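Page 47, continued from p. 46.
Same chain as before, 160 aa.
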Amino acid sequence: MKTVLHITEAFGGGIQTALCSYAKTTNGDPIRHLLLARLRPKDDTGMAVNALFDEVHTVEGSLLNFFLAARKAVLDIQPDVIHLHSSFAGFLGRYLPKGKAKMVYTPHCYAFERRDISDVMQEIYYRLETLGLSRIDVVAGCSERECDWQGKWGQSRLFT
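Result:
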């Protein structure tokens, strides 16, 4: 049985819907889905994720707390696949211990494309996004646009 550890820093809304969809579509397959999610105060987390995932762990507080919890989870669980959801989880995931796990990254919209932040912050997020790409085995883009960015950065294994 394969173990997939889903890690997300932004658990509300669309990411939660996508995570539940992944778990539903593999129901009956020999896959254990585990979830580590950072809860943010305004996230809508009303979906019944506990019924879809074999284990659900939540983290409150700072990004440092989230990173430390993710690191501990990876070391304790030693999953076959680490699936990072969101730009922040994707960035932090580049510094997690990987072991023999395959690392999958789904940005769910790149932070540098946000229009509610300054041009300087967009540039910082863009540069951060390009760091450590060699540790990512698969980019599972939610859109062709996400996959196009990865192609521009030299990431060859893409799918939507």
